[in-house]
Specification:
Elements: H1 6-14, E1 20-22, E2 25-31, H2 35-52, E3 57-61, E4 64-69, H3 79-89
Antiparallel strand pairs: 1-2, 2-4, 3-4
EC number: 4.2.1.96
InterPro entries: PCD_sf, Pterin_deHydtase
Organism: Actinoallomurus acaciae
Length: about 90
């Protein structure tokens, strides 16, 4: 897994709506009607993450879910991060 260059990150980010670059990660915040809906979403995220064997950091604040994605082993963003982000956008 190779870390992406800045130009590659910008290109990938342009085709991954809803995510923003924060330091060496991409982050998406999703707001739901209530805690139950947020938790249902988190469970769907977990299923996709397990399928791809690539896992985001997940922060839950009642009805708000914050997903943070990076490849720790590569020391930054890789193709896998954007592949997962696009799959999560489809949820």
């Amino acid at each position: 897994m190779q870390q992406l260059r800045a130009a590659d990150i910008e290109r990938e980010l342009a085709s991954t709506p809803g995510w923003e670059l924060v330091e060496d990660s991409i982050v998406r915040t999703v707001k739901f009607q209530d805690f139950k809906a947020a938790m249902a979403y988190v469970n769907r995220v977990a299923e996709v993450a397990e399928e791809l064997n690539h896992h985001p950091d997940i922060e839950i604040r009642w009805n708000i879910v914050v997903l943070t994605q990076t490849t720790h082993a590569a020391g930054g963003l890789t193709e896998h991060d954007f592949r997962l982000a696009r799959r999560l956008n489809a949820l």
